[in-house]
Each structure stands twice: as C-alpha cells, then as structure tokens.
Amino acid sequence: MTDQLQSGSPKSVTADDVAAMAGVSRWTVARAFKKAGSISAKSRKRVMEAAETLGYVPDLSAASLGSDRSNLVALLVDDFDNPHKLVMLERLTRILREAGYGTLLVNMLGEKDAPEALLTASQRRVDAAVLIGTQFDEGIRRTALGARRVKKLIVFARMSPSPDTVSIGCDDVTAMEEVTRHVLARGYRRPMYLAGPDTESTRLFRKETFLRVWSAEHPGSVPAVIHARSYSLADGRDCALAFLRRLSRDTRPDVILCENDVLAMGAMDAIRADLKLRVPQDIAVTGFDDIPLAASPAYDLTTYRQPITEMAQALVRVLGTDGTAQGTILPGRFVIRGSA
C-alpha cells in the first residue's frame, strides 16, 4: 500500500511528478499540454504517457494566474424556450473547445438578473462574456464595462449599437430583403409580421427591413405587426391565434412573416389545429433560423438559415485579438420549403 493510501488523504499528482516519470523538466510538461506549445512529438508522447499513468490533469485555473488570459468564456443565455439556442450552444461550445477555450454557461433568470449574471462571469476571470438572448439592454452593458467587470462583451446573433461591445451576427437586413422579395413575388398582398418581445435589448433588424421593403413596393400599405411575449412555441401560438380570431376571412392575412422559427411553428399550430385552416393554401408562413425541426414534414418551413458555424469561428477570432476588435456580419441562406 502506498504512502498516499496509508495516510487516507491522497495528495494530488503534480507536474513535477509527471516530469520525474517522463524524465523531462516541469516546463516541458506545461508545454505538452498547450496546443501551440513548442515541444517535440517524442517528448509530448512521453509526457502524455506519464500523465495517463499517474492520472494527472493540469489545473487550468492555476495555470492562468500568471497570465492575462484564462481561456474561459462565459455564455449568458436568457431564453431557453427557443430551441435555436440549443443549436447555438452546441456549435459554440464545440468550436470554442476545439480552439482551446473552456465555457461557463450562465442561465440568466430575467432582466433584473443581468448585472448579477455578469458579476458571476467576472468572478471566474473569463476572457469574455458572450450575450445570447433578449434581455441585455444598453444600460446593463455600460455598467458592466464601466466597472471593468468583464474584459470583452460580445453580442452574439444580435446587433448592439454600443461602440464598447462587439457584435457577431447574421446579416438580418439582406436576409429579410430576400424573404420579403420572395413573398412579393409569390403574389401575397395581406402580410402580417409576428415579432418577439418589443424590448430595449440588442435589436434584430428583421421587422424594420420587412416594413421598409414592403412599403416601397406598396406605398401607403401598412402591414399588421404583433409582438409575442417571448420566443416560445406557446406564446407564438397564443399571440397569432388571438389576432387571427378577430378577423374575418376577407381581412385575415394571406402570409405571416415570423421573426424566428419557433414563433412560425406556433403560428402554424394556431392556423391548423385551432382555426382548422391550411398552410400555405389559406395562410402561408415564413420563419427565420432554420432550426432542425423546420425541415420536418410536420412544418416544412420556409425560413432563413443563420451561419452559426461561421459566426462561432468569428467569435474565436475576436477572442484571439488584443485591444479593440471589430464586429462581424455574415450572410446566411434562404431556404424555400412548402409553408410559403
């Protein structure tokens, strides 16, 4: 029985233990665990074999104490009802991990929780806080940056007008121009726009772009715009149903453009299950995001695919820069299916 087992409190295996077994210096051990570390393949192999034998893993938090970087990124999310967030999180965490970054997921519990969520991130010495949600207004961001609570604030999949934040997102303007032109070309004349919460948060420009393009083609025509309480299937269905039930057959919309896919699916459920109408014969529907369920025969949703992989790769590039970084706006792809 070893001394560690006899004492009843085994000591942690250190880099020095690995170095002694591998016959190298402790600095060689440190380099072996860095992706870009300068070390020969032979030495790395010896270190890794010794580490596996001893059960050694480097303490990343301790290693970061002597550096300005922690290689840890906080992801602050506030709307898990939206399935598109799961797609984003899978892609982000995978690409960040491939680039050598760990992630800290912070579930923001509402708008009032935002300052505490940012404080939680800063207490872990994160290299950046990535805001993915609807409830981060400019006041919260100014407070966080003014107090130096986080090194970088990055708005992901939305746009912020603040010069102190970096925005990475899809080109919403070009996207909605294409979606609206498609609707116009198909001959629809009574559109309705179903948007998410109308808050002071970082903005999407989908609604404004649709209204601008539509009005240019039909001067004087003002399409109806309604706002759901949240980006959820239930609220999309309830909001669409409450509006459509007030209208006669001759005045109801012939197409509903939705700010994202989950609202579009809620609207489709209201049209088919509650009103016993058909999509697209009675009312057509478009979405935005192209979540996996959009391609299901149950919805067959015409939508716009966000370039999530490219956006995540752009985030990695921003993290690798020192000082001021530029935002990135990327094109997506219009996906035409049977709903419109």
Structural description of this entry:
By secondary structure, the protein is of the alpha/beta class. The protein has three domains: 3-58, lambda repressor-like DNA-binding domains (434 Repressor (Amino-terminal Domain)); 69-170 and 308-331, Rossmann fold; 172-305, Response regulator (Rossmann fold). 40% of the residues lie in helices and 15% in strands. It is built from 13 helices and twelve strands. The chain has helices at residues 3-7, 15-22, 26-32, 41-54, 60-63, 84-98, 114-122, 138-146, 172-185, 206-217, 233-244, 261-274, 308-319, and strands at residues 72-77, 102-107, 128-132, 153-156, 166-170, 191-195, 224-227, 255-258, 284-286, 303-305, 328-330, 333-335. The protein has a six-stranded parallel beta sheet, sandwiched between helices. Strand 1, helix 6 (84-98) and strand 2 (102-107) form a beta-alpha-beta unit. The protein is elongated. The relative contact order is 0.11. The model is unreliable at 1-9 (pLDDT under 50).
